[in-house]
């Protein structure tokens, strides 16, 4: 028996305890490692399952080109075996894709740059998305690259489809955008908050913005005002109700006020699209149509014909005043818009329809007027009235009825027929030859006209004007004058001018031919036999020539006699003055009176001789032309005749106005004019009377007025006051006398281009006015 010391035992026990503890620890560690191993195995199994079933398959590419990949990935690549080198993988891909993949792997190895690349297996439709990155150290492939392959075949098809749809939608969007931009009407899009997000070019022009961005950024609204009833309110209603909204609002576009119809359309996105249509012209047209309708109805009210209009539903919509009167219908009954049948029945009740046996059938036939292809025109006879009825169907399905009272027209036609007969009888009873020409032919003529032409039946065929002229030519003294007839007729018918001429027939007859335009465009030709008048005119011309010759002989005789009278008058005056001067001795008082009476008579006779010479032998004597002071000339005449007026106890008054001025004339003749007028006034005014000489004028004429308050002159005396060698009847001093003063004054005044006028009333006096031109 081996004895173990105590210390050894202690050491052994300690060692044993340590061994036991180590064994226990090792056992516990083994159990723990076993548990961890089992967990790692399970985790690895799960990861392997996940990797094998993952839509992405990994491939490790080492630095030397060797690869590690799964069987599934090899199937994706179309390889029967599992590739061991990157070149085998490249051979499984399309050439372009293999080259691109190698380039990307090289870049990832050198620059640690990740990449994403789409490749296709050679000879397959399979599309693969490769995502590559440098391998981490944990992979155990230093300098290598980890590639993840995803099968995107279905996704690629979807992507291709989406790309095609996107291209199509993009093209449609571009076309729609171009259409919106090219649209002539403003268009816009609002977001759910109703703020503008997009506008077209027409909108930009309408709001006068710089561009679409400027209009959107500034929020320029097309229509002013965003309150109740404004554009935003309309868009809000469309957004909230999901129903399109339409509203008409005014807007200012291009500086002009326009009426717009706004359309707001809600979109599924919550926004609102809108566009505006310019309806200004439409509104104006609508207003014009309304005014036209009102004017048309006002015009229909002024028509004499009765008019009624029915709507497509056959209700009465309008009648004019003549319709109410013609058919005795009250306005309140018509205001209810009665139906067509009721209107006919009311007409029948008022006895305004023709009598018929089957009224319902007749009414049904008239109801067909609404669908008739053309207007219907018929005549109704109601008692003594005759109505023309025109039914005009309207394109929109209504009907217009026009009732025209032709009673008076038919009566006028009857009267016209009677007037035609009366006209024919009247024309035949005229003493003139009368014919009416129209359209270049003879239309109507009377018996007198036929007697001039129709010896050979020329007028039976209503010949043309040229044939009429040729037929009458042989019967005229000058055949070429026959063309005058055609010229007169054409002037009246075409030029609407009345002209006349004279024709002489070979048998000695004379005719006054006159063509008169008629209101209907025709021409009336009249031929009046004036043979008797021509004979009388010829006799009067012969007599006038004889009288003119006698007047010339008388004038010559009077002039010669006046010259002959001057010699004895001069001798008488000379011897009388010698007696008065005492050459034959002193005269007694009575002898002196006799001598003075002789001298006065000689002076008066000398004046008469001078007047006669002025009226006869001096008519062609030229006038002197020099400035004449009218006031000075008048004073000379007044000074000469003042003693005569004083001797007759007359008041000779003179009024000289500065406007009388001066004229260019013969001073001696102007003074004689004033003297003759004053002598006429003085000689015709009884004692105690008054004679007034008044001179005035203007810028055109100088005026002389001589008036008196004598007994005046009769109408006959006034008519002959200016006649030469005419007795004035009983003169104003009660004696028959030959008055030469007024004729001489008239002759001198007219020689100066002036005018003389006499105004007198019996018992009121006489006034003579002379106007002499300044130039």
UniProtKB/TrEMBL annotation:
Enzyme class: transferase
Top-level division of the source organism's lineage: Bacteria
SUPFAM superfamilies, alphabetized: ATPase domain of HSP90 chaperone/DNA topoisomerase II/histidine kinase, Homodimeric domain of signal transducing histidine kinase, PYP-like sensor domain (PAS domain)
Keyword Transferase: yes
Catalytic activity: ATP + protein L-histidine = ADP + protein N-phospho-L-histidine
Alphabetical keyword list: Kinase, Phosphoprotein, Transferase
Gene Ontology molecular function, alphabetical: kinase activity
Cross-referenced Pfam families: HATPase_c, HisKA, PAS_7
Domain Histidine kinase: 560-775
InterPro entries: HATPase_C_sf, HATPase_dom, His_kinase_dom, HisK_dim/P_dom, HisK_dim/P_sf, PAS-like_dom_sf, Sig_transdc_His_kin-like_C
Signal peptide annotation: none
Gene3D superfamilies: 1.10.287.130, Histidine kinase-like ATPase, C-terminal domain, PAS domain
EC annotation from Swiss-Prot or TrEMBL: 2.7.13.3
Protein name per Swiss-Prot or TrEMBL: histidine kinase
């Amino acid at each position: 028996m081996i004895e173990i010391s105590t210390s050894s035992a202690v050491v052994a026990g300690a060692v044993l305890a340590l061994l036991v503890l180590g064994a226990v620890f090792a056992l516990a560690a083994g159990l723990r490692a076993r548990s961890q191993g089992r967990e790692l195995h399970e985790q690895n199994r799960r990861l392997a399952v996940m990797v094998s079933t993952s839509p992405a398959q990994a491939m490790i590419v080492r630095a030397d080109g060797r690869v590690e990949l799964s069987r599934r990935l090899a199937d994706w690549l179309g390889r029967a075996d599992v590739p061991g080198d990157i070149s085998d993988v490249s051979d499984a891909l399309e050439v372009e894709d293999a080259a691109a993949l190698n380039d990307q792997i090289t870049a990832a190895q050198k620059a640690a740059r990740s990449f994403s690349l789409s490749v296709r297996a050679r000879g397959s439709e399979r599309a693969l998305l490769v995502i590559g990155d440098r391998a981490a150290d944990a992979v155990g492939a230093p300098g290598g690259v980890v590639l993840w392959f995803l099968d995107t075949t279905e996704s690629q098809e979807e992507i291709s489809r989406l790309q095609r749809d996107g291209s199509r939608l993009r093209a449609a969007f571009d076309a729609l955008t171009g259409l919106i931009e090219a649209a002539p009407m403003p268009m816009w899009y609002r977001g759910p908050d109703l703020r503008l997000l997009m506008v077209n070019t027409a909108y930009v022009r309408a709001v006068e913005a710089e561009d679409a961005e400027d209009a959107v950024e500034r929020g320029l609204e097309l229509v002013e005002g965003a309150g109740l009833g404004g554009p935003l309110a309309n868009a809000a209603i469309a957004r909230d109700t999901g129903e399109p909204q339409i509203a008409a609002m005014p807007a200012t576009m291009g500086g002009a006020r326009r009426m717009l119809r706004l359309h707001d359309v809600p979109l599924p996105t919550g926004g609102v699209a809108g566009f505006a249509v310019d309806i200004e012209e439409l509104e104006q047209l609508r207003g014009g149509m309304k005014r036209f309708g009102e004017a048309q109805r006002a015009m229909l009210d002024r028509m004499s014909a009765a008019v009624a209009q029915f709507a497509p539903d056959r209700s009465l919509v309008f009648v004019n005043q003549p319709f109410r009167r013609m058919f005795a219908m009250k306005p309140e009954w018509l205001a209810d818009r009665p139906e067509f049948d009721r209107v006919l029945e009311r007409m029948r009740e008022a006895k305004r329809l023709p009598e018929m046996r089957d009224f319902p059938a007749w009414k049904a036939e008239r109801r067909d007027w609404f669908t008739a292809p053309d207007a219907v025109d018929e005549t109704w006879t109601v008692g003594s009235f005759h109505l023309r009825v025109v039914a005009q169907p309207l394109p929109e399905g209504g009907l217009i009825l026009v009732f025209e009272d032709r009673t008076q027209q038919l009566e006028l036609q009857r009267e016209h027929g009677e007037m035609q007969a009366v006209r024919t009888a009247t024309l035949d009873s005229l003493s003139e030859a009368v014919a009416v020409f129209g359209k270049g032919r003879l239309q109507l003529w009377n018996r007198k006209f036929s007697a001039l032409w129709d010896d050979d039946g020329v007028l039976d065929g209503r010949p043309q004007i040229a044939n009429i002229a040729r037929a009458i030519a042989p019967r005229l003294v000058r055949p070429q004058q026959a063309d005058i007839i055609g010229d007169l007729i054409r002037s009246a018918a075409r030029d609407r001018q009345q002209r006349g001429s004279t024709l002489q027939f070979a048998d000695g007859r004379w005719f006054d031919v006159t063509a008169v335009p008629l209101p209907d465009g025709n021409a009336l030709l009249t031929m009046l036999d004036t043979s008797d008048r021509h004979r009388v005119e010829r006799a009067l011309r012969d007599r006038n020539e004889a009288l003119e010759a006698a007047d010339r002989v008388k004038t010559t005789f009077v002039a010669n006699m006046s010259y002959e009278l001057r010699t004895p008058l001069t001798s008488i005056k000379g011897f009388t003055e010698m007696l008065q001067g005492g050459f034959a001795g002193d005269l007694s008082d009575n002898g002196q009176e006799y001598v003075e009476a002789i001298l006065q008579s000689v002076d008066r006779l000398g004046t008469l001789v001078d007047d006669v010479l002025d009226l006869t032998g001096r008519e062609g004597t030229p006038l002197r032309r020099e400035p004449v002071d009218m006031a000075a000339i008048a004073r000379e005449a007044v000074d000469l005749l003042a003693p005569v007026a004083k001797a007759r106890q007359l008041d000779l008054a003179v009024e000289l106005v500065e406007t009388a001025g001066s004229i260019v004339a013969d001073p001696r003749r102007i003074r004689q004019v004033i003297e003759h007028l004053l002598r006429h006034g003085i000689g015709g005014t009884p004692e105690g009377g008054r004679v007034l000489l008044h001179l005035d004028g203007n810028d055109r004429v100088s005026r002389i007025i001589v008036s008196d308050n004598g007994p005046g002159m009769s109408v006959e005396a006034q008519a002959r006051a200016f006649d030469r060698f005419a007795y004035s009847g009983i003169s104003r001093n009660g004696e028959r006398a030959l008055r030469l003063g007024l004729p001489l004054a008239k002759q001198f005044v007219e020689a100066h281009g002036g005018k003389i006028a006499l105004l007198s009333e019996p018992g009121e006096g006489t006034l003579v006015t002379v106007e002499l031109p300044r130039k």
